[in-house]
Amino acid sequence: MVGTKRVLAIVHTVTYVKRLLDVLALLEADFRIQVLFTAPPHVFGDEVPRFLAGLGSAVVPWETATRMTFDLALAAGPGGVCDVQAPLVALPHGAAYLKRITEAGPAEAGVAGLRRRDILPDGRTLPAALVLPHSDELRVLAQSCPEALPVASVVGDPVHDRIAASLPHRAAYRRALGADDGRHLVVAVSTWGPHSSFGRIEALLPRLTAELPADRFRIAVLVHPNVWSGHSAWQVRTWLAYWMRRGVAVVPPEADWRPVLLAGDWIIGDHGSVTLYGTLTGAPILLAASPEQEINPASPAAALATTAPALSPTPTLPEQLEYALAEYRRDEYAAVAARITSEPGRFNRNMRRLMYRLLGLGQPAHEPVTVPLPLPPALDSWTAPGVGPGRPGAGPAEVSA
Question: Model's pTM, two decimal places?
Fold first, then answer.
């Protein structure tokens, strides 16, 4: 269309593209804007082409994208972004800035995402805007990369706001998942890396299936997409096939994990973003892994590590779940959740204003509403074939108000 502004979504991994989709939804129904996607090389980028094909999106090869000019670019990671000719909006790809790098040299050390090398990958080019979820990050930025302060905007967190908007629909998610049959749903969550809970999944899953009776509990496993990409989807499913045949639901990387998290009665997690978002849901959390050396001590993940009980070799899991429930204090978890963003409920408003300002366009004349998450498929669709009562999934229908 004549005069259309071109926006490029730079998607390195499945995690990154999922984050950007919440942002790109703010441009929907605006015929003045054409969104294009591109996938730069990335060690965990194997699944991106298939994911984009499933979206039916317009994809520009990376080599072509770097020779084109765009009116705006969005990225949730730094790789290759300086090769794109466009004003760049740099966003975090997870909750807050949880991870610190300590094992590398001085040039590599710091809070991942806020290091100078993350913000200035080529050592000199600032993004047009650096999106932050919380005002606390400004203090870190002032130390790590002070020249980026003029382009920093405290905008909020889209996942926080989508989960918060979806909380009233928890019963609908449980029905869609088939988790409304009187059994409790335990959601086991893992980030990636050797210190994640997936690093000891071969010890955790036998306990979950042996100690939690199938007539009282259902188990769902959320594994970071980087694990699927790093080892291959075939390998992850092969590793977990034994437990999938016993009814454990393993949520695939392309699925939306947020309704599953919302539906859980307990969360067994680690130091990753998904576990932290679990503080919004009202479910007690047990930490199967919380490596101090990987956690930014000023982050809400560090606060969660001193709030949630740690999974123990003894006593039994039912006893530990009961303990976590008895010790659960909503105000303590709410204090942790409040550190995810200092702009709760305002991400859409703030982010849309920022993008349209950089595009040189007036915003659409309506409020950018945060809609509840869509209904998920049934848990049985994520177990091995033939397991469970065979209840069909509800499909990706929208939640009614």
Answer: 0.92
